[in-house]
Amino acid sequence: MDYDVIIIGGGVTGCCIARTLSRYDLKICLLEKESDIASGTTKANSGVIHAGYAADRKYKKRKLCIRGNELFDQAHKELNFPFKRTGTLVVALEERQIRDLVYKRNYGTEDGVPGLEIIIDKNRIKRMEPQLTDKVIAVLHAPSGGIVSPYELTFALAENAHINGVEFFREHEVIGINKIVAGFEVETKPKKFTSRIVINAGGLFAAEVSRMAGADTFEIYPRRGEYILFDKGLIHLNKVLFPMPTRLSKGILASPTIHGHVFIGPNADNILDIDDISTTTRGLKEIISGGVMLVPNLPLNAAIRNFAGLRAVSNTIDFIIEATEMVGFVNVAGILSPGLTSTFAIAEEVVRILIEDLGEELKEKEKYNPYRPKPEHLSDFTKMKLNQKIMENQAWGRIICRCETIPEAEIVDAIHRPVGATTVDGVKFRCRAGMGRCQGGFCMPRVMEILSRELDIPYKEVTKRGKGSHYLVNKVLCIKLTEDSKESKEVAEK
Amino acid sequence: MKSLDIDIAVIGAGSAGLGAAIEAKKQGMDVLILERNDELGGITLQCIHNGFGLKIFKEDLTGPEYIQRFIDEAKELKIPYKLDTMVIEITEDKEIYAVNKKEGFLRIKAKAIILSMGCREKTRGAINIPGFRPAGIYTAGQAQRFVNIEGYIPGKTFVILGSGDIGMIMARRLTWLGCEVKAVVEIKSYVSGLIRNQVQCLEDYNIPLILNHTITKIHGKERVEGVTISSVDQNWDRIVDSDQYIECDSILLSVGLVPENELTTKAGAELSNNGGPIVDDNLETIMDGIFACGNVLQVHDLVDNVSEEAKRAGKNAAIYVKERYGKEQIKKDHIKIIPGINVGYVKPDYVNFSNLENLLHFHLRVKEPDRDVIIVIKEVNKIVYQRVRSFVIPSEMIEVRTKFKLEIISPNCRELKIEVLPVSLLEVLDEVG
Q: What CATH number labels B2-120+258-329?
């Protein structure tokens, strides 16, 4: 056997399971079909850490959300990802909705959600969130709710898992799973792997993966949510703001991001195509009208990006976290909201399944290191400290991304970190170069240059996010006298 | 931390920064230019088409030829400059914090500062185009850099959204390179760029210009595969059942430029509705001794106009250092210039009463195209300036140069309103009163 455990899927769930299991004496690898981890649902969601009062009591996701929320403080200390308990507000705009807030508060408090409070004093509400609509009647305040950068959390998990021995294979799409004696053979496009245990964290593709292994027990349906992100500095929100929820979703919320932007979204659109992450005119209009209900002063003319993500909805509605009839094959599927909040609790649940259902005797490693250092950011430095950093390494003094003030040193670090960036999007999501208001207008060619140099690949081969997403088609002629000029000369000679 | 003191710091070494620095130096100032790129010249370096310098040099130059004359002059005058140097912060005391890789963190104390950081292009997000987010979507300027500086072609078949000047110029450039430009799609009923570019870049090459249309969906998951365009009504809302699909592997966006004023607002200067800082007729912002010129102040049509504006900023900054720096500031005697009927914005935002008799330069853009108009400046209802024009369009900036006789303007004047009225309307007004 090549491995004790293979994890399929490099979203936040897969990476969190990898990191949690890396504590034990197991040989583990993770397979991701895309060119980078955190490329699917993880990349495009609300990034909200829920307090846990929302889901119905009959679902296990309620318990996992409350537990998962608690686990964030410790994880944050160890992994240094951007996270803040801002508190969340459910906003009632009509008297009759207060009754619903009371249910939420009472059941939530009973189940251990800390600090839930209904506020009807308008002055107090406005002090908490000055941008909230004047039409507010009451709010349910949940101080333990917060915001996180979901992809930076995932990178932190993967980096930490990697230093504890987990191997990562990107651009390894699983195309078949065969039962072999005492384990499985997992077939990917580049090569085959064998393992005693397979954990399916395939997100939108989890049902397909499960069927490959012979466990045809559930279905996954994509439910799309669209978002609009606004420029920094024009509006500030203190809290995550929810409307009263609907049957399909928690409704269109308005929220600060951990990096100081404000976003609105998502809508909830059941679609057929499992990779249709396109935004729509109708959808964008829908979220704008939802957003302004909560925050009338949204800077609608200062949007910097719209995007869409897909929730992986299972036919059971609830999370599916279970060992299957195919002994050694574990499904972790249907992880939609509050999946991000629950992530550490889901990983705990997987450990429990390994021990109780699969009879694994998990032994802790002697040299497990739970810490992942915080990536160094120019924005965190004092002037003196930055001066000293530039003296040590000139790359700190060369600013590549102007909007977010990202120096070359941070981009090089994003590339050379464990499970580092290999594409322009990989750099963008790790260190924010290209995330600002110009959306890479100036820095993208320079980021491409750095990727080409650091990874030793031709400039033309640098992609947005892997196979098929090339930026450049042809060489014009040799205008710039760089390393490439030799190559052009050769072409000219031919 | 390295620290230095100078008379005038110029931020940005494009056509605005170079022009301002040269003039300030000629006025005997100790000048320093800070440039974030690795060479002098700014965006003009990648504009290898011609049409530059007709006004200033009476010659038809390419962008690099035009800017080289300024680079040469700056070097002859031995104006010091720092390349690869990014200004992080400007304080209201005119302290500049900047970084570069050789010197680390720099603190520069200046007596006056000239802001000349230019502008940037609006992106897809700014106009909320729905659809997928594949590779193959570029701003026109980004594509221009790939082709003219890096030497790479970013696609084979293009649809260009927006009819800004760079977009139209890139349509021609890409056609020369053997690419196919399938259409230039413009949401308005008229082009956003100069008429000369519409003729020379689109019509001469039979590139279809589709007005009153916009992209309503981008197709292609990894790389662009096509776009859906739809016609729009007067409110720019999509008209149902007007969709058509165009196959292409790239999209260029030429949907407008925005002055780049992050540093300006951090320093405490306010912006007006065009995105540029509020300035008086000396091109001085509301921050004492901080001046602005070029596209950071207002997006110009022609680089020649940038150079002229820069020269004024350089001169006025020098006068400030010589006459006003370090002295207690007299209370500013400002007349507010208000954009009235069919005026999108006007620069300057204020005129000093004491400057009324000097030659004043007003720059404005209309909101809507119109024919047979009269440009008027009014103090309440009294017309103090008027000029007839046969045609106005938002894409062509209007310049008004005038001096005022003091006896015309009342000593208590606090506001002047500038308007672009149909000639017929003016006649009606006259009759009324």
A: 3.50.50.60
